[in-house]
Amino acid sequence: MRAKGKWSNLYLIVIFIILYAPILYLMYYSFNSGGTMHGYKGFTLDYYKEVFQDTRLLIIVLNTLIIALLSAAISTIIGVAGALAISNVRKRRMENTLLTLNNVLIVSPDVIIGASFLILFTIVGIKLGFISVLMSHIAFSVPIAVLMILPKLQEMSPTLIDAARDLGASRWNVLTKVVLPFIRPGIFAGFFMALTYSLDDFAVTFFVTGNGYSTLSVEIYSRARQGISLSINALSTLLFLFTILLVVGYYFITRRGNHTASRTARLEVPE
Q1: What kind and span of H or E run contains 207?
Q2: C-alpha count within 13 angstroms, C-beta hemisphere, residue 204
Q3: How far is CA 228 from CA 20, 46, 220, 222, in A?
């Protein structure tokens, strides 16, 4: 058993090295005064200053954050409604069908999804830009939110809802006072997952961005094609650190939510 545990730990260490070594390599050379990724000559923050002095880049970062926050919020609201609808389906076959339809956008290749959205927006007459990017991000984020929220609904005992109804709670009070507080960790999980997916997405966004509008992932790709510049390293490092902050924030929020939920196992219903 000990030998098996050692091999498991070694396997995890190797996997983490493979995953994080390229990122650490990129971050390391973002401070290189030599201007290349081959020989480290000295420490500098010039490339980070270059990022913050680039007005166009700051506008693109703002566009990316607005798209990510809006799409995550809207998709989470839709995801809550979708998860409630799926959990209330009584027929097992219908529930499985809805789950399968929900998972289509998750398992489908991003290139196919992006091309489909491009064709759809072209046929409908929606101009490529902010609206097209926002709609496409909402579309592929909703299934993610549903999958994060639905397990919490399935964990909830039906007796909680029955007890609230017996005490005179209306449907709205049951939803707001019982169901939503119970599934709050799943809602936060869905929001943060949708937020990170929106920030990281490239393939779908590449198809639906128009002239004069771009997001951070598309901009990094465009700059990387023009040649090696350590400002790309600095920009990627900042984006990676921001993602880590989101993950840490999500961890503490869900931990606090689970602690509160376990400590307050009572119903709040009006008199």
Answers
A1: helix 203-208
A2: 25
A3: 21, 15, 11, 11
What the block records as the tokens of 127 is: 């101009």
pTM, two decimals, is 0.79
Q: Mind listing the pLDDT tens digit for each residue in 2-47?
A: 666 677 788 888 888 888 888 888 888 888 887 777 777 888 888 8
Is CATH 3.90.226.10 correct for 51-263?
Answer: no
Please give the full DSSP string across 40-56, using - where no structure is assigned: ---B--HHHHHHHH-HH
| Closest among 214, 239, 242, 215 to 26, alpha carbons compared | 239
Which phi and psi (to 5°) does residue 209 adopt?
A: -85, 140
Q: Taking the alpha carbons of 6, 12, 13, 18 in that order, is the dihedral positive or negative?
A: positive
Q: Is residue 44 within 8 Å of residue 198, measured between CB atoms?
A: no
- The domain locations on the chain are 51-263
